[in-house]
């Protein structure tokens, strides 16, 4: 069978992921940025490791030591999740780590809520859905996990969501943005209907769209559309909005890559 | 019919396999013989989004598409072509729509065949519509409509029947985002295989009744999901060593179609098809460098190595500088086939096969495992316990780990992250039981509790 020599192989392809890999392991990188507080550190570490039971144990210890459960959401859980999302953004850890950490964080938030009579304050609300007629929801599930990991309250409408249900959710929840995902060219047309009905009702909020067959040209055709090429763009668009960039044209300048 | 399990390989060695030649060629459509010594372009397309608004618009769109393709094939002098229509959901949910499209397409193809003698066949890939908004609904009313769609299309002119079925996807989607190798094995290898046995027994019976060809199924819903999430070299969403494990596990799952009466050609997006060809000897369609219109992959040349039909996956119908998209892409596919067929006619096919394979062999762990010599080894691991759907899927995964590890000891470079993901997966596989009943019981308990959209009754539990 034909084969390369080591030298000839290098003329054919380059494994850039190997060539550019960071020297530090994920665990070492996380250790450098964990909070130092002895009650918060084990919670943040348990979030990073995606260990739900250890998160609860750490929270219980902190509450026993006098910490306010609701304050712990921001001061411990979100700090731990911040380590995770930062390392993901830097390319040091991969998406499954984020998903497992997000699961652990959500368990932690529930535990904090159960141990308090006040409600937590989030960074804002985002309404997420999969286009009407489309049942492919893995992309939407990634988007919702990443939004929650970044401190947003998510109203997850699920898949194959009728246009009117999206509009009603916007009216009821006053989100800072709506996300829509679709796999198929034939279902993504529902995005335009969502856009038109939002405008008709007077809601000029950004509508971040992405997934399978969706592309920047298509999303740019409707007034509220902002194209997100990666699921990880969703929390970044939300962050830009709460930082004051609510204008769709400016968001497009920032996030449209093509 | 009951599944007739494969416990041996169709080919005595990997080197016997080439493109354009299969052990069991398939006659289909208008004078076409697939896997009988020549490769065939298989063009796939999607209507423009607005075409789905009515049945009449949809039929008109497919008539334009079909005419454009047939016209271009004749204009450039290509002797054979397959058209693949992947149903948009309206065509499978309303079987009469799918049937009318099939009839309209076949009428045009017959005209070209009558006038020019061009050999051709029409594949209809029915949409797996067995779900509602909240859950998969693999059995019951939706299943009846699903089967009706196959039968109506077969009666109306489709020659090759196919589907990309979704059994096990609810568990797989959960597992793949959590590096959960046992869940991937359960979703694809066990749940997927159970569902495949049900549907392919029925689809094969429809093909027999209608004189059409039960062609095959791909694990697009799961293994391709893993491949797409894995993305390119710099994407950080899934280790490619896990994506290739999903692929290896998908082979015994997609094999079930052929164990229940399908005869090929397996559908284009089944990158696992090279493993299945090694086991069954049946012809397979593949896609790679010519499917960049639909998605990127890391084995665009390699995957041509043993194809019998060569596809573009899908392209939206619209205009380009060189004609409509279906004209441009069918011409590209047909030129690739002309090169492969030239190699076959001049007895240079093994040289070209090896050039295709070698150009991508070390590009990625996914291409490394699917190189025909390694794919053959995965096939051997599957048939070793061919009678046990769990063990053969586990064997495929273990063999895949071994192949990547052996490669990494040589010229296959792995990132530290990929190597760790592989080591973790191998460790997880090593602690799994050998007893299928225990594995199934453990997984049923675990995923019923963790995956809220998992309904065991979908699988007859």
Topology (SSEs and partners):
The complex is a heterodimer of chains A (258) and B (461).
Chain A: H1 6-10, H2 16-19, H3 26-33, H4 41-49, H5 52-64, H6 69-89, H7 95-114, E1 125-130, H8 138-149, E2 153-156, H9 163-173, E3 177-181, H10 190-200, E4 207-210, H11 216-219, E5 225-227, H12 233-242, H13 248-255
Parallel strand pairs in A: 1-2, 1-3, 3-4, 4-5
Chain B: E1 21-28, E2 32-36, E3 40-45, H1 55-76, E4 80-86, H2 89-93, H3 95-116, E5 119-126, H4 141-156, E6 160-163, H5 169-176, H6 181-210, E7 213-217, H7 220-230, H8 240-259, H9 273-280, E8 285-287, E9 309-311, E10 319-320, E11 323-324, H10 325-345, H11 349-361, H12 365-370, H13 372-384, H14 389-408, H15 416-430, H16 436-450
Parallel strand pairs in B: 3-4, 3-9, 4-5, 5-6, 6-7, 8-9
Antiparallel strand pairs in B: 1-2, 10-11
What does this 3D model show about the protein?
Chain A contains 13 helices and 5 strands. By secondary structure, chain A is α/β, with parallel strands linked by helices. In chain A, helix 8 links the parallel strand 1 and strand 2. The termini of chain A are far apart. Chain B has a single domain, classed as Aldolase class I (TIM Barrel). In chain B, 53% of the residues lie in helices and 11% in strands. Chain B has 16 helices and 11 strands. Chains A and B meet through helix 2, helix 7 and helix 8 of A and helix 11 and helix 15 of B.
């Amino acid at each position: 069978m034909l084969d390369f020599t080591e030298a000839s192989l290098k003329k054919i392809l380059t494994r850039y992921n190997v060539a550019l890999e960071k020297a530090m392991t994920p665990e070492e990188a996380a250790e450098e940025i964990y909070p130092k507080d002895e009650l918060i550190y084990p919670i943040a570490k348990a979030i990073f490791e995606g260990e739900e039971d250890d998160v609860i144990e750490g929270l219980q210890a902190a509450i026993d030591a006098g910490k306010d459960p609701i304050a712990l959401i921001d001061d411990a859980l979100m700090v731990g999740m911040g380590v995770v999302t930062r390392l993901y953004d830097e390319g040091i850890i991969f998406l499954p780590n984020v998903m497992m950490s997000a699961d652990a964080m959500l368990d932690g938030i529930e535990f904090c809520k159960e141990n308090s009579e006040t409600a937590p304050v989030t960074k804002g609300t985002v309404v997420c859905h999969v286009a009407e007629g489309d049942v492919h929801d893995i992309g939407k599930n990634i988007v919702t996990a990443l939004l929650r990991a970044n401190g947003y309250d998510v109203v997850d409408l699920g898949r194959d969501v009728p246009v009117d249900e999206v509009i009603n959710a916007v009216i009821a929840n006053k989100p800072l943005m709506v996300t829509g995902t679709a796999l198929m060219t034939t279902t993504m047309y529902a995005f335009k209907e969502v856009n038109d009905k939002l405008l008709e009702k007077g809601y000029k909020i950004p509508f971040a769209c992405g997934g399978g067959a969706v592309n920047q040209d298509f999303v740019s055709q409707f007034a509220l559309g902002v194209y997100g090429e990666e699921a990880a763009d969703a929390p970044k668009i939300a962050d830009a909005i709460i930082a004051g960039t609510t204008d769709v044209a400016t968001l497009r300048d920032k996030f449209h890559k093509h | 019919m009951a599944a007739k399990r494969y416990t041996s390989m169709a080919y005595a060695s990997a080197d016997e396999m080439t493109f354009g030649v299969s052990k069991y060629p398939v006659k289909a459509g208008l004078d076409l013989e697939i896997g009988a010594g020549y490769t065939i372009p298989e063009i796939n397309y999607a209507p423009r989004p607005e075409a789905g608004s009515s049945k009449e618009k949809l039929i008109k769109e497919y008539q334009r598409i079909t005419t454009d393709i047939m016209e271009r094939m004749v204009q450039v002098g290509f002797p054979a072509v397959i058209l693949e229509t992947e149903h948009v959901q309206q065509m499978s949910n309303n079987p009469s729509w799918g049937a009318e499209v099939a009839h309209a397409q076949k009428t045009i193809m017959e005209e070209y065949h009558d006038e020019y003698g061009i050999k051709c066949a029409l594949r209809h890939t029915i949409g797996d519509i067995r779900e509602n908004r909240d859950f998969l609904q693999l059995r019951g009313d939706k299943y009846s409509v699903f089967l009706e769609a196959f039968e109506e299309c077969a009666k109306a002119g489709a020659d090759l029947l196919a589907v990309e079925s979704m059994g096990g996807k609810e568990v797989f989607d959960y597992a793949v985002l959590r590096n959960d190798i046992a869940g991937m094995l359960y979703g694809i290898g066990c749940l997927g295989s159970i569902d495949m046995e049900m549907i392919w027994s029925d689809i094969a019976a429809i093909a027999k009744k209608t004189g059409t060809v039960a062609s095959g199924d791909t694990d697009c819903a799961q293994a391709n999901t893993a491949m797409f999430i894995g993305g390119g070299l710099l994407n950080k969403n899934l280790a490619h060593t896990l994506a290739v494990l999903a692929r290896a596990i998908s082979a015994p799952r997609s094999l079930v179609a052929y164990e229940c009466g399908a005869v090929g050609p397996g559908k284009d997006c089944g990158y696992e098809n090279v493993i299945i060809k090694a086991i069954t000897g049946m012809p397979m369609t593949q896609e790679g460098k010519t499917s960049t219109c639909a998605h990127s992959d890391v084995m665009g040349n390699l995957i041509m190595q043993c194809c019998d039909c060569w596809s573009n996956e899908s392209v939206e119908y619209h205009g380009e500088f060189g004609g409509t998209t279906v004209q441009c892409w069918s011409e590209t596919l047909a030129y690739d086939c002309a090169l492969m067929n030239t190699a076959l006619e001049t007895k240079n096919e093994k040289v070209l096969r090896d050039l295709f394979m070698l150009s991508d062999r070390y590009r990625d762990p996914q291409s490394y495992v699917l190189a025909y010599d390694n794919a053959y080894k995965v096939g051997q691991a599957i048939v070793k316990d061919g009678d046990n759907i769990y063990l053969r899927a586990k064997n495929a995964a273990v063999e895949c780990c071994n192949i990547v590890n052996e490669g990494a000891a040589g010229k296959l470079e792995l990132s530290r992250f990929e190597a760790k993901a592989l080591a973790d997966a191998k460790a997880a596989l090593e602690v799994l039981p050998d007893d299928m009943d225990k594995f199934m019981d453990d997984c049923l308990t675990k995923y019923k509790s963790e995956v809220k959209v998992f309904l065991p009754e979908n699988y007859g539990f």
